[in-house]
Amino acid sequence: MPMESEGQLKGSCTHSDHLVKKHKIEGTLFLNDSPFQLERIQALMRDVGSSSVPQITDILKDEKNFPCAINRSVGEKSTSQTLFSIVMDLKRGFAKVKMGRPTERGEAFELRP
């Protein structure tokens, strides 16, 4: 979802688990906490004031509202977990992918065209 922002964050897009923007066709929200996650990541990005890959990678470790956080985990209130995280730098043409939760061990790799 495009961020409404100026400065370094202008043009940044964020994404949570599922579609949250209103569309002509109404559907059910698969995960009720998706809007919270989207608002949270955008607030954290505004606080940081930059959209660098290392800073966004750190933001993806956030556990506010755990287990239904940006860094999601199975728990009493959650039956799903973060499968992977991806941070793309479209200007420089690469993406960093981390398999599994960002705070746990797992494969990490870079994508380049």
Automatic annotation (TrEMBL):
Pfam families registered for this protein in UniProt: AAT
Q: Where does the record place the Peptidase C45 hydrolase domain?
A: 16-103
**Superkingdom of source:** Eukaryota
Q: What name does the UniProt record give this protein?
A: Peptidase C45 hydrolase domain-containing protein
Species per Swiss-Prot/TrEMBL record: Cyphellophora attinorum
